[in-house]
Amino acid sequence: MKFENEFVVRRPVQACASVLESDATITSLFPDTEIVSNAGGVRETRTRVSALGAETTVRFKFKSRPDGGMRFEKICDGRIWRSLEGNISLAAVNAETTRVLISLDGSTRSLVPEFTIKAPMKDQLQQMTRALRARMERA
After folding, report:
1. 71 CB burial (10 A radius; 0-12, 13-18, 19+)
2. What is the DSSP-derived secondary structure letter of residue 113?
3. 43 in Cβ contact with 24 (< 8 Å)
4. 3-state class of 7 per DSSP?
5. What is the Cα 17 distance to its own chain's centre?
6. Nearest to 74 by CA among 32, 46, 40
7. Which domains are assigned to the chain?
8. In the 3-class helix/strand/coil scheme, how is 44-109 assigned residue by residue?
9. 39 CB contacts (<8 Å, ≥6 apart)?
């Protein structure tokens, strides 16, 4: 199951990459998120969420890429996801404008039909996009 969302921001690529390096940006991508470790260039987060009618905690690992983008992955220790990985890519449109692409790629566990998680994932991607765009526009 793949999801993508993109936007263009009137900031140079390097300014956008600096925003991605910020702990405040990482914690703004999901409400109620905290960074629980930052070792070896990998930040691990913990977020309290409601998923499929149950309260749970989800964990992600975020790692910056040399090109200024970021890779992230969910630590799949629950009942829903077998794997969930994502990327935030930055591409210069011109010297002062950057295209930001957020992509997610995942698969659910065998007893979780993908159609049950598609709508919540689209909502989550929209939320991430709004939060990231707002931070980059303020930079």
Report:
1. middle
2. -
3. no
4. strand
5. 14
6. 46
7. 2-30+64-138 (3.30.530.20)
8. EEEEEEEECCEEEEEEEEEEECCCCCEEEEECCCCCCEEEEEEEEEEEEEECCEEEEEEEEEEEEC
9. none
- The list of the chain residues with pLDDT below 70 reads 51-52
b or e along 1-34 (b: 16 or more beta carbons within 10 Å of the residue's beta carbon)? eebebeeebebbbebbbebbeeeebbbbbbeebe
Tokens 């263009």 sit at which residue? 8
Instruction: Give pLDDT tens digits for 33-48.
Output: 999 999 989 999 999 8
What residue type is assigned to position 139 of the chain? A
Residue type, 90: L
* φ/ψ (deg, to 5) at 80: -100, -55
Q: What is the pTM of this model?
A: 0.91
> Which tokens go with 26?
């990482």
Q: Are 82 and 89 in contact (CB under 8 A)?
A: no
DSSP 34: E
Find, among 86, 31, 89, 90, the residue nearest to 60 by Cα.
86
